[in-house]
Amino acid sequence: MSSIMPPLAHRLDGLRSSAIRDLLKLTARGDIISLAGGLPDEQLMPRDRIARAAEAALADRSRLQYTESAGWGPLRAVLAARESARLDRSVPVEEVFVTHGSQQALSLLAEVLVDPGALVVVEDPAYVGALQVFRAAGARVVGVPLDAEGMRIDALVELIDRGERPALVHTVSSFHNPRGVTMSADRRRALAELAERHGFWVVEDDPYGDLWFDGSAPAPVASYSPTVIRLSSASKILAPSLRVGWMVAPDAVCRGVELLKQGADLCGSALTQQIAADLLADAGWLTAHVDKVRRIYGERAAALVGALRDRLGHRLVSTDAAGGMFVWADFTDGTDTADLLPRAIDHGVAYVPGSAFAVTRPYRHSLRMCFTTADTATLCEAVGRLASVVGE
Amino acid sequence: MSSIMPPLAHRLDGLRSSAIRDLLKLTARGDIISLAGGLPDEQLMPRDRIARAAEAALADRSRLQYTESAGWGPLRAVLAARESARLDRSVPVEEVFVTHGSQQALSLLAEVLVDPGALVVVEDPAYVGALQVFRAAGARVVGVPLDAEGMRIDALVELIDRGERPALVHTVSSFHNPRGVTMSADRRRALAELAERHGFWVVEDDPYGDLWFDGSAPAPVASYSPTVIRLSSASKILAPSLRVGWMVAPDAVCRGVELLKQGADLCGSALTQQIAADLLADAGWLTAHVDKVRRIYGERAAALVGALRDRLGHRLVSTDAAGGMFVWADFTDGTDTADLLPRAIDHGVAYVPGSAFAVTRPYRHSLRMCFTTADTATLCEAVGRLASVVGE
Q1: What pLDDT does A1 receive?
Q2: Shortest CB distance from A65 goes to which of B39, B55, B256?
Q3: Which residues of chain B make contact with A199, given a CB cutoff of 8 A?
């Protein structure tokens, strides 16, 4: 027999691997301090508590069976209570849908809410996983810039005034990836009002909201309107391998996502969903655990930002890192961060160039640094290496 | 603020919930013996062995972290060895891709291999999860009938001779869901030859291959050609909540699926993937475990088929149930199984009417019965109730 391969679908033609993922592979060398990643610190994940929860979950054989597409009932109930407190309204269980990480919620929502050719507005620079999903859904993706108060709502209004009609606006409202900033309360309210006035969906993607260092982020955009769909996740506060994300959305949206999830993967894991439910319902333990993660990430963020200002303050400006996992910096001396990267790697330090997150603007002088997985001394050493490359 | 909801995407217009899932919800009443399900028996799932594996997996904190999109490396290695033995050739790890159940493999493959408007051939009656996925991908879906030797390859040839050019042919080659039959060795070879000659993909969906009762199924279709992509799963032999399915496919296909999986859900769970790897690599234990499942399912299948022939043999013909989870029967007396269902439920027995699996033919006199989750006495009682409804 011949070994000629039948063709692949045309929709693959434009797709390429995420720049961040490819970079991560390059920087796995032990002698490189990588600030290029985007992983939570596995040393801070509650391994022993998860082990206890796993043992408890396995006491019931029905945790080994298929579960509901919308998620294991008791987890949805725990999440409904949690989100009711967060949103300051009573969230019914029917409006909570558990997904395989919040990336799956994004991916299924793109299919449920976006027709091919429809306009989707994202923040610029953007979360790459959102860009990829909306482009794959055939959307026309337009970026709106961010400043220190988050998405520039004035730029969104200008876009609408020009006659553009978004089907959906995506925002990482708190401790933005990659831009580090948090949307102000006034802008949150304004965004929700615009959505209602002009009939578009907002997807508020909030994996980092619990990781505040000095004070929590303002009330979610979703607290202002039911047309704002809120996504969150256990990956950053508990463990990514539970693969538990969730969304809060109107019933019609949840039912659309349910139909698509049946085709996508039938259902999630009742086993890891019970583990997540157990930990998220253990209020005293959870508070102490998340407080510890906040404190350690906060120290690391402060060390990174401090070192950047000490060593490179004359050449760049960086965000304050009030929460989340990332610091964003812009070189003011014309340094091109994509050009710099190979030399930085030679000097034993890696980051993600701003261009990897670019939608409309190029972000040629910007970079994203992740502070979660290195201790403060290592972060200072990383900045020292970066300073020596730039100073060459 | 108003509460007017923005519109949902048009692609939802034609979608509806799976008839089987809706039925399952109706027949959860305790007084109904439901043969309508399609679940493995959770009493036979290796709970204690999974608990030991979970404990071992959690000894390493990195099992809590994100993992590779293609699957946790050591699981892929275990699967490569397993599939090398099955396919009688050396399967490299790069050609093994772990998915969130084999449903996710189907769903991602539909996007990687099928352009909108392309022809996809499925078996008629069809696995509903495949139908749903190919229709959602915009394929033109055509059914080819099955007989006691599986897919009617002569009907496929006739289709091709009429000038039709399939992009993909989907088959549940062993112990078909819903039809119960297994494709003969001659037809497997013929299907692979046709795929190579006419340049189409075959997706061989094989979740039931290990569940044979008297003798194993013939060598996989995939053993005859690399243009045959093989899907399998741990759900039916270990536990669905591990959410571990996998595919064996050429490298270019795996890389396409990898790009799409990054957008779909980033990655699977390193925790449940290590549990699956542990159990699948424990050869002695696995053989004893699967032997036990085979023996018990075999007894149940024989009881169901025996009772059908005893009580209803003058009115219907049923498959032999040589493996898998389902018996298919056709009424020969004109009974309409969709019309009969409400009365059957009134008499305390449920099944899935053939029409739920119909692609081209209506299957109005057919029904699918699942024998995995009831003991032999209960199965006989179910047939007794069915006989009393039919006899009314």
Answers
A1: 44
A2: B39
A3: 4, 6-7
Question: Considering its fold, how many domains does chain B have in total?
Answer: 2
Residue B139, domain CATH: 3.40.640.10
Confidence band for B21, pLDDT divided at 50, 70 and 90? low
Query: Of all helices (H) and strands (E), which one includes residue A340?
Result: helix A337-346
Contact A180, A125 (CB under 8 A): no
Specify the pLDDT at position A29. 73
Which among B61, B226, B262 is the nearest to A45, CB-wise? B61
A206 assigned to some structural domain: yes
**Residue A113, in any domain of the structure:** yes
pLDDT for residue B16: 64
Place of tokens 């996983």: A129
Test B269 with A243 for CB contact under 8 angstroms.
Answer: yes
> Which structural domain, as residue segments, surrounds residue A365?
10-45+287-390
Beta-carbon neighbour count of residue A58 at 10 Å? 21
What are the mean pLDDT values of chain A's consecutive 10-residue runs (392 residues total)? 75 67 66 92 98 98 96 98 97 98 97 96 96 94 97 98 97 98 98 97 98 96 97 98 98 95 96 98 98 98 98 96 97 95 93 94 96 97 97 80
User: Hey, what long-range contacts does B360-363 have (CB within 8 A, 24 or more apart)?
Assistant: B360/B124, B360/B142, B360/B143, B361/B124, B361/B125, B361/B143, B361/B145, B363/B125
Q: Is the separation of the CB atoms in A358 and A124 below 8 Å? A: yes
pLDDT in tens, B170-189: 999 999 999 999 999 999 99
Q: How far is it, in rounded angstroms, from Cα B346 to Cα B344?
A: 5
| Mean pLDDT value of segment B111-138 | 95
Which residue carries 């959906």 as its tokens? Answer: A168
Looking at chain B, the whole-number percentage of residues with pLDDT higher than 90 is: 91
Q: Distance between CA B272 and CA B99 in Å, rounded? A: 12
Q: What is the pLDDT of residue A24?
A: 56
SS (H, E, C) B67-87: CCCCCCHHHHHHHHHHHHHHH
Query: How many helices and strands, by DSSP H and E, does chain B display?
Result: 12, 14
Binary contact (B111, A11; C-beta < 8 A): yes
Give the nearest partner residue to A61 out of B42, B54, B226, using CB atoms: B42
Give me the interface pTM, i.e. the ipTM.
0.95
Place of tokens 């009974």: B335
Q: Is residue A52 part of a domain?
A: no
Residue A98: its chain B contacts at CB < 8 A? Answer: none
Domain boundary among B262, B282, B302: B282
Q: d(Cα A180, Cα A148) in Å, to the nearest integer? A: 9
Q: What is the CATH number of the domain that holds A17?
A: 3.90.1150.10
Give the C-alpha separation, B138 to B4, whole Å: 30
Core vs surface per residue A234-244: b (16+ CB within 10 A) or e:
bbbbbbbbbbb
CB contact under 8 A, A65 and B54: no
Distance (Å, rounded) from C-alpha B134 to C-alpha B207? 18
- Alpha-carbon span A136 to A153, nearest angstrom: 26
B319–chain A nearest CA distance, Å:
26
Please give the DSSP secondary-structure letter assigned to residue B237.
T
Beta carbons within 10 angstroms of residue A213's beta carbon: 19
Using CA coordinates, name the residue in chain A closest to B108: A264
**Band of pLDDT at residue B29, cut at 50, 70 and 90:** confident
Average pLDDT over chain B, rounded to whole? 94
Residue B164 lies in a domain: yes
Closest among A58, A108, A341 to A247, alpha carbons compared: A108
Same domain flag for B130 and B274: yes
- B54 → closest Cβ in A45, A58, A252: A58
The pLDDT assigned to B218 comes to 97
Query: Could you please report the per-residue DSSP string of B250-318?
Result: -HHHHHHHHHHHHHHHS---HHHHHHHHHHHH-HHHHHHHHHHHHHHHHHHHHHHHHHHHHHHTTTEEE
